[in-house]
Amino acid sequence: MIVMEQVPGALGTSASLALRLGQIVFSSASLLFMCLGVEFFSYTSFSYLVTVMGLVAPWSLSLALVDAYSVFIKCLPRQPRVLLIVIVGDWALSFLSLAAACSTASVTSLLATAGTSYCPSKLCSRFQFSAAMAFLSWFLSFASTLFNLWLLPSL
């Protein structure tokens, strides 16, 4: 039987806290580079990325607080229903963020090949960096989902 302390990225562990902090950093960076001084709302995929990253950041922040509480108080959450809610939320947000990152990267690539009249090089590089940060956020979110899913049958 797998014990919660043996699963490195499961809810309530220090590895999960590190994953959540990474999600917060990357989703916030994606939002920052998309929104600062840029009219992102002219393309639907950019608006979608901003919406999804705007959901990922508070979700990850709230679960980071749960992880921090669990790490410092040494009280691991072992309720299967709570873990199932976390898994479903992580799963949904990870696929939404993957879709947003892919659509943003593809539209940015299309705009970059269309020429500088559609996307100046400085603007396109900011869009590309925002998409890259969204991909990194997705990777960490999906890793959290897999670690928690691995733990669920043992509860």
Automatic annotation (TrEMBL):
Its main location: membrane. The chain crosses the membrane at residues 21-42, 48-70, 82-107, 127-152. GO terms for cellular component: plasma membrane. Keywords: Cell membrane, Membrane, Transmembrane, Transmembrane helix. It is a multi-pass membrane protein. Residues 12-140 form the Casparian strip membrane protein domain. It comes from the Eukaryota. It is found in: Cell membrane. InterPro entries: CASP_dom, CASPL-5. Belongs to the Casparian strip membrane proteins (CASP) family. Homodimer and heterodimers. This is CASP-like protein. It comes from Hibiscus syriacus.
